[in-house]
Amino acid sequence: MGKIIAVANQKGGVGKTTTAVNLAASLGVLEKKVLLIDADPQANATSGLGIDVEGVEVGTYQLFDQSVKPGDAIIATDSPNLSLIPAHIDLVAIEIELVDMEQREYMLRMAINQIKDDFDYIFIDCAPSLGLLTLNALSAADSVIIPIQCEYFALEGLGKLLNTIKSVQKIHNAELDIEGLLLTMFDSRLRLSNQVVEEVQKHFNEMVFETIIQRNVRLSEAPSYGESIINYDAASKGATNYLSLAQEIIKKNEA
Length: 255
Hints:
The protein is an alpha/beta fold. Helices cover 40% and strands 15% of the residues.
């Protein structure tokens, strides 16, 4: 049975999609069977894996409106052992369409339940908001990874997200766990980066992943080539970081 992990933060630009794509690709390279679900209307995870967003006819939107079997929305990627359910800009409309539906918070869970036994890990790349798309992802997930960038406003909004997670645990998904807080965009030369790391580790202790994702030019370049960092430059610092994170997750979940 696959472990379902949402990658969520309502704050944009924290490395959420970068983490979803590259962690999923890293686990694939480590011979885990992985599915990435792009639940963000911006569809950056889809384009970041080399899929033409404009050409997407079946994807996450159809999971929500239940117009196709979930297995029919899965496509292969160039990354080993990594499959994708792509997104399209039409996913924007689903929040409005879901409002009057019964069980609207559980549409994604119902879809994923039909395919979760086919994978070791299923990642959901969430939209940078706390709307119905993200609520669906958190209701469907076993756990959530929260990326936090090592910058001045790092902890801004984190309290709100943690409160949302508590509400989801109370009302929609009692089993939801925090997989970990992931420090991203770390620059060891900056005193501020080091201060943020210290502060997050001090406040959240064991909730914080040991792996820290460092700032890396190759990591920034990879999406423009439609590749994960593993495919784009396996020798880069970014690839090393995400492989380390993948090993940390395997160790935590399969001990």
